[in-house]
Amino acid sequence: MRNQLRVLFITPEVYPLCKTGGLGDVSAALPAALRSMQVDVRLLLPGYPQIVSGVKYKSKLADFSHLTQFPPSTLLSARLPLNKSENIPVFVIDCPGLFHRDGGPYMDKSGRDWPDNALRFGLLSKIGAVLASDASPIAWYPHIAHCNEWQSGLTPAFLHFHAGQKAATVMTIHNLAFQGIFPSANVAQLGLPAASFDIDGVEYYGNMSFLKAGLYYANHITTVSPNYAREIQTEPLGFGLQGLLTARRDRLTGIVNGIDTGEWDPATDTCLVKNYSSGKLSGKAVNKAALQQQMGLTVDAGIPLFGAVSRLSHQKGTDLLIQLAPQLTKIPAQLIVLGSGDAVLEQQLASLVDSYPDAIAAHIGFDEALSRRIEAGIDCFLMPSRFEPCGLNQMYSQRYGTPPIVHATGGLVDTVIDSTPATLADGSASGFVFASMTQNALLRTIIRATQAYRDKKTWRRIQKNGMAKDFGWRIGAEAYREIYQSLL
Ligand code: ADP
Ligand code: GLC
Fold this sequence. Notes:
CATH superfamily of the largest domain: Glycogen Phosphorylase B
Bound molecules: adenosine-5'-diphosphate, alpha-D-glucopyranose
Number of helices: 19
Distance between the termini: 17 Å
CATH architecture of the largest domain: 3-Layer(aba) Sandwich
């Protein structure tokens, strides 16, 4: 045990305590998979109210009132409430001045970024760096600091300028569209040396960027699918960082996300009206009828029911979906959308529902249980993302016997096989892929899926192919372990 690999996994969200998207799921499932492979992974989390009150076996571990740039905080040691054998140890930064507030982890209730986000996630990054160095006040010293998203992007920068012993760093990009860009005055305010404010450093077009700092100073960079790793090395998906990413491409690895196949299993998911499996798919129809009823749609087993669960945003192509929804009803087909985000898109969805109350339903908000009932109850999942670093819902869908329709981008390409005569014949067809991001291409693909749906034998085959795929974390976790090991 003494030679065990130790990893500090720094993340701004984790399921089930705080989740705004896929990062929350990954931050629980990947550490659990690594722990089952004997890697001693522990999480470092900001102490939002739901995290401080939600973790189990809390105890105070250290005091951080000496970090003069930040309000006083304490470090708690605790466990995630996962009810599983792989109980994950967590460190929680309890800083009332920065984290005890109503609203979301990154934004207030009205959707505005917290004005002190640089300080909030500067503290997460800073404490990550302290714990990963010989300045740490605790006895557990990690070999690797694994940073996730811009919120922990300054950890590699702080460590770079730390003179003593320190852990190696891995920076994982979950979405390059979010970079944590703040005015340059933050460099001094957060306690970074002036020398770091350079093109070879944290500087980004006159501002400072948390993510760029991580990408520049980390020993290794990963992102959440091999295809996205290629895409971000050029415009437009490099979002201004393609030069740096290309220069560091020998240190950039794409590892496709897995899913927690125990958490996401239609045979055991307690949110479903009826459990089912690949061998006993009949239970899926019970979920469809219940969902149609719950959402106020015409209850009809024969009509194809499409659905989407996502952030309502330009990235996710929600606008495209809204535009073609009236045509979808004419197929005829039904549509259910669960999501929240862009206020204009939320309003447009609401007026669609008013116009087509029997065929289109929407629930604005974040609802984990409903998202699972939708995965189980719909026939076909819609994911017309303009870009998608990995995406988890297309994998949840396949596991739930709900073939997804996806745009050929990012991780969607790595995880969904288009249904063609050839892929149907070789047993790999698991969904539908469209190449050009237009309303026409999406509609044509929806019609193609509807035709397959009407051919019950073909549809069963696509469903079963998807359900048989191994989306678990075993291979991905092994790839992360190899990277950690290569940095020792
Ligand atoms: P992203 O992280 O870009 O939002 P992913 O596909 O990786 O996209 O992960 C999204 C996760 O968030 C999935 O688990 C999805 O079910 C969940 N999710 C998104 N919106 C909602 C919502 N409104 N209600 C419940 N779950 C949601
Ligand atoms: C991001 C990406 C999504 C990915 C998730 C988890 O939110 O948008 O594609 O699946 O992170 O890595």
